[in-house]
Amino acid sequence: MSVLATSDLTKRYGDELVVNHLNLSIAAGDLYGFLGPNGAGKSTTIRMALGLVFPDGGSVEVGGHSVFSSTEARSRALSRVGAVVEEPAFWGYLSGRRNLEYFARAGGNKVDRRARLDDIDEVLRQVGLADAAAKRVKAYSQGMRQRLGIGRALLGHPDLLVLDEPTNGLDPQGMKEVRALLRRLADNGTTVFVSSHLLGEVEAMCDRVGVLVAGKLVAEGQPGHLVDEPDRVRVDVDDRRHALDVLRAVPGISLDELEARSDGGPGPIMVGLANGATPAGVNAALVSAGIGVRALVPEHARLEDVFLTLTEGE
Q1: What's the sign of the alpha-carbon dihedral 60, 65, 68, 69?
Q2: For residue 148, which of 109, 232, 265, 274 sits 20 to 30 Å off, Cα-Cα?
Q3: What is the assigned CATH class of domain 2-225?
Q4: Is the dihedral of CA 280, 286, 289, 291 positive or negative?
Q5: Are 186 and 30 in contact (CB under 8 A)?
Q6: Are strands 267-273 and 232-237 parallel, antiparallel or unpaired?
Q7: Strand (E) or helix (H) holding 228
Q8: Is there a contact between 296 and 257 (Cβ–Cβ < 8 Å)?
């Protein structure tokens, strides 16, 4: 069963179709990257998934319960969800622990509140803030505040964690910390749904990616599967001049004009592949000619290249 699923989810603002018959299915334990340019409809989709915005059509289910069919179903659906939408807000003059204590006491019945309070030490450890728990939040870095926000969302051990642009505004170290945290959570069984327009972040940490353009899901799959087979290969040889002579005779291979004029000696050659030419074929041709191949690295397209192709013209 999907932890989060949408069926023909649709939302308009005036004449603008912001989310266009969106169908998603996020399995348990997935770290799912919801990727798209600013204005693609990512935040609106998240707000509908959390019951904050009503759709104009379609449905959302969390844990098999409909978010919009009834108040009871919504309560059941969202009771196992933790979320951070936009930048998390805290009382800066209070410590990280005290902030979590106040939020743990807010809402729910006595049993729920007690469970959240009992979770605080574990959550602080999970997000790497156990040693900073007594510090005032105003002394936290941006990355620490972001991790504290994720910690707040983890109170109560939710099955689904929903994060809207969690690395926005972070420096490289902060982005690395959040990325590592989300990976650990997913590896330990929490389903993580994270929206982003940062392609490198999504490619580095996510199990699956959905690309949203103008409210439509235009591609979905594992990051590596969205990328085509390599169309270039960098090969490092011990005799460039001999290697270039051999490669010119191999069908489907192209060489950069300047590179083809270069001198001999050891070094790399960038080889274009077309019409069925493969990295294995390049290697076989060179080895058969007695040329030493020290390294052969396929040059895959980056997810960024795929993203730009998918969003071109939108």
Answers
A1: positive
A2: 109
A3: alpha beta
A4: negative
A5: yes
A6: antiparallel
A7: none
A8: no
Tokens in use for 103? 């939020």
| Rounded mean pLDDT, 269-293 | 86
Q: In what order do the strands lie in the sheet with 216-221?
A: 81-84, 160-164, 191-196, 31-35, 208-213, 216-221
Cβ atoms of 90 and 148 closer than 8 Å: yes
- Taking only the tens place, the pLDDT of each residue in 26-58 is 999 999 999 888 888 999 999 999 999 999 999
Architecture of domain 232-298: 2-Layer Sandwich (3.30)
Residue 79 class from Cβ within 10 Å (0-12 exposed, 13-18 middle, 19+ buried)? Answer: middle
Task: Please count the CA atoms within 13 angstroms of the CA of 177 that sit on its side-chain side.
Answer: 19
How long a stretch of residues is the chain? 314
CB atoms within 10 A of CB 294: 11
Question: Residue 2 half-sphere exposure, CB side, CA atoms within 13 Å?
Answer: 15
All residues at 6 or more sequence positions from 54 whose CB lies less than 8 Å from its CB, including other chains:
48, 68
Q: What is the pLDDT of residues 79-128, one digit of tens each?
A: 889 999 888 899 999 999 999 999 999 877 888 889 899 999 999 999 99
Within 8 A by CB and 6+ apart from 258, the residues are: none
Domains in the chain: boundaries: 2-225, 232-298
DSSP 15-65: TEEEEEEEEEEEETT-EEEEE--TTSSHHHHHHHHTTSS--SEEEEEETTE
